[in-house]
Amino acid sequence: MHALLFSSQPYDQDSFSHAPGAAQLALHYQSARLSEDTAALAAGYEVVCAFINDDLSAAVLQRLKAGGTRLIALRSAGYNHVDLAAAKRLGLAVVRVPAYSPHAVAEHAVALILALNRRLHRAYNRTREGDFSLHGLTGFDLHGKTVGVVGTGQIGLAFARIMAGFGCQLLAYDPFPNPQVQALGARYLDLPDLLREAQIISLHCPLTTQTKHLINPQSLASLQPGAMLINTGRGALVDTPALIDALKSGQLGYLGLDVYEEEAQIFFEDRSDLPLQDDVLARLLTFPNVIVTAHQAFLTREALAAIAATTLDNIARWAAGNPQNLVEG
């Protein structure tokens, strides 16, 4: 059986080639992002393996089906980029990786908090230039601060455990409270109350029609002045242009983003020799209290190994007529 991995990077090739079950599949790698223009590359492949910024709209799925594709194997937990109704209509099965390493994403969120708080990015640049002054580098103790966890699934739970270890007071929002988060001493609140009370807010919820632009001008206005916002979930959880006004006014004191709503045409590529065409992202990058990373929170050896192993197992089980981790519209 032949499988084509779109948006594949060298680390994908390494993790997939060493994963259990790799020898039973003919794996092929394509660095191009899946789109209407590149879907023809999948002609003759029964399995297409897609990543988070690949286009799996109805038009693309139609082209994949016409080329002989029967299975869409996602290398991600999220599936908001898949037209599930179209996949069902076309008879295309869709499988995903529901969990790989919640610790990877949770730890990256904490890394953003620590870097922003202690101005590590600014300190690093200063000392590289021979400037060893401490002006403007004052941070705050995390101990005793109130941290709001929005979304308390596996990643949110892992994040809450870390912040509890720092001695933080935990608030949580999720339509389905997690008893393990409650056992850490977290109080579940409605989202508006959490946003008003928390000094640090970290987003770990999936992107749905209900959560799109969960953070918007109105919710930003309710934050404590100088609050910190971290997003390692999905870019569209946040109305990004609204962040600029909140940063300019000081309402938002710190911002850490690992995801961006318009990242599909930007992230995962070296664009250092090109002018940045996205005016919103370019503006965000001018703020000294903002750190943007290029969707790397998942990028640990353990997470990559788990993604590869689960994806190949999903393909093997589907081929054997015993599919698991199916996504159904």
Helices and strands in order:
Blueprint: E1 2-5, H1 10-17, E2 26-29, E3 47-50, H2 58-66, E4 71-74, H3 84-90, E5 93-95, H4 102-117, H5 120-128, E6 146-150, H6 154-165, E7 169-173, H7 179-182, E8 187-188, H8 191-197, E9 200-203, H9 217-221, E10 227-231, H10 240-249, E11 252-257, H11 279-284, E12 290-292, H12 301-319
Parallel strand pairs: 1-2, 1-3, 3-4, 4-5, 6-7, 6-9, 7-8, 9-10, 10-11, 11-12
Helix pairs in contact: 1-12, 2-3, 4-6
InterPro entries: D-isomer_2_OHA_DH_cat_dom (IPR006139), D-isomer_DH_CS (IPR029753), D-isomer_DH_CS1 (IPR029752), D-isomer_DH_NAD-bd (IPR006140), D-LDH-like (IPR058205), NAD(P)-bd_dom_sf (IPR036291)
GO molecular function: D-lactate dehydrogenase (NAD+) activity; NAD binding
Pfam family, one: 2-Hacid_dh
Structure in words:
The strands form two sheets. Strands 8-7-6-9-10-11-12 form a seven-stranded parallel β-sheet, with helices on both faces. The model has no long low-confidence stretch (mean pLDDT 96). It has helices at 10-17, 58-66, 84-90, 102-117, 120-128, 154-165, 179-182, 191-197, 217-221, 240-249, 279-284, 301-319, and strands spanning 2-5, 26-29, 47-50, 71-74, 93-95, 146-150, 169-173, 187-188, 200-203, 227-231, 252-257, 290-292. The protein has two domains: 2-100 and 300-320, Rossmann fold (3-Layer(aba) Sandwich), CATH 3.40.50; 102-292, Rossmann fold. With 329 residues, the chain is α/β, with parallel strands linked by helices. It holds the Pfam family 2-Hacid_dh. This is 2-hydroxyacid dehydrogenase.
